[in-house]
Amino acid sequence: MDLNRLSDRLLGNLYTLSSFSKQKQLLNLGKGELCVLIALLKHGSLTPGELMKLTDTSSAHVAKILRNLQSKGEVNKEVNDSDKRSAVINITDSGRKHLYSMYDQVVENTVSLLEKLGEDDSRELLRITDRIMEIEGMNREVAE
Prior knowledge:
Layout lengths: L2 H17 L1 H10 L2 H11 L4 H8 L3 H13 L3 E6 L2 E9 L1 H25 L1 H17 L4 H4 L1
Antiparallel strand pairs: 1-2
């Protein structure tokens, strides 16, 4: 087995999959905005510092993401009651609706793909991705 050749094919396939227009929109959002919206939905009000830690993002990038989300009306910033010098970020109804809409779209696209793969290949794909996550020590809860 030539692992270098297999690695090249796998990386090429992953790159191509990420280039599909339906996935590209999600991946572009996922580089920041989606992660922040999910963190806020899951954890509630968070400070920018907490968002940095949860999303593993720099302070400058978090600031840029928050400006973008605020301009779209998907998050708002309020004075932190426990420390008046800092702010907390909350997801708005608009942000929540956008997040659920994106999720529904991704589920719809994924269901369509799995239907085309068929049950056996779909189960095998899930088994392999679960195994990769296990090998990498990834927590399923974080990845979901």
